[in-house]
Amino acid sequence: MAHLKTVSATTKNWSELPADVIAVGVFSKGELSPMAKDVDKTLGGQLQISIKNGDITGRKGESMIFYSEKHRLLAVGLGEKKNLDLEQIRRASGTAVKTAIRNKLANIFMEEFAQDKDGAAQAQAEGAILASYQFLDYKTMNKQNNFMLKKVTVRTWDRSGLKKGSLIANAVCFARDLGNHPGNVATPTKLAQEARKIGKRGKMRVRVFDRAKIIKMGMGGLAGVAAGTDEPPKFILMEYWGTKKTEKPKVLVGKGLTFDSGGISIKPASKMDEMKFDMCGSAVVLGAMHAIADLKPKVNVVAIVPSTENLNGAKAYKPGDILKAYNGKTIEVLNTDAEGRLILADALSYASKHYKPEYILDFATLTGAVVVALGYVATGIMGTDDTLIKKVKSSSKTTAERVWELPLWKEYCHQIRSKIADVKNIGAPMQAGTIAAGAFLKEFVKDGIPWCHFDIAGTAWNDSETDKGGVIREKPYTPIEGASGNIIRLVLDLIDA
Fold this sequence. Notes:
alpha/beta; Aminopeptidase; nine-stranded mixed β-sheet; six-stranded mixed β-sheet
């Protein structure tokens, strides 16, 4: 885990603490804070001269370093002061950290970019830690070229906000690590081990069902997908009781497909390596529970992760097979590469039967169709309860983790009806593939339970080769390459609402 762990708070002046660089914000039209003016005065007014000459304008994402004999000043653009929001604070903090790392400056003293805004310190800590993230676990050569940020200190009174932001960002970085590990490391067994560690720290009840138990309990979806791999599948249950048990728990379900070859309906070889990221739904859930173990909110949360590989061994399930899910519904398998919805079917059925949830959220890299519909900018959502969807959208706005609701009309639900079983695992050919997957999952959520499905296939990981139209670079706190940890902050905001 290569990233900054904490952001420190101080009420001391910038000149009283040692730092490699002092980071300040610059608003549009060159407006400076008192601290920025003070630091600039020590540097002979270089910043204000640059503003006057138009070298720095204060636009969002802008950064520039100024030097004196004893000090360095890092100016970061904040945009219009009247429009400064938490996301711009997060991005400005991330920009400062990225710039410092690029210039090999290990110790940053940062002013508080917004002193009168609720949540500003939390956002600043999130931006700093998330931007510091690097995945270096398998780099053995030229280690001397690796550079790690050592310390960020923010001049603020809001220590609790910095602490909360640090804990949340650490959880996101933990999830990024899980996603970035290869399939021979991040196995279902590994996910179960991490769940137990989180559970121990957070005083949660953790249970893990093995292949024999999964089959005995009648989880035909998970058992069917797991039949073609020797890697032991796991059904992971985590229970956090932060308040009285009479209060309904919020249930989080994450797809833990640790490697997906497509099974008999095999995927093309090109970019199949990226299918190690097919467990990013489980990383969202485990990342959220990682934060909950530290934040200890006064709510009840249940996490469920069905986990396996999808390979094409001698015992692998086949197109045309009929599987029976945990709730008794039968499924006609028409494509073994539509496997995520099969393992989620058992998890959603289990949650519906054994808990009385306030609501259920599920997370999955489920369909390539969502990328066709929304690109890499937003996560597709759909669900059964307008109030829950509104809350999800509100948390999306707060955290700047974008979602877009897709319809789940009855016409789409009819498309997953099977002629020889209750349902089939794909919808109409070349039509609304993301919605068809959501319609399938809906069949396994008990009527009356509010439910929202998140298809994160377009937002769960990034690829520097294409940069996805510049989307990644818009967020300096998101890695250009690898797992993003997206949606975890949204989930935590929703849970805490």
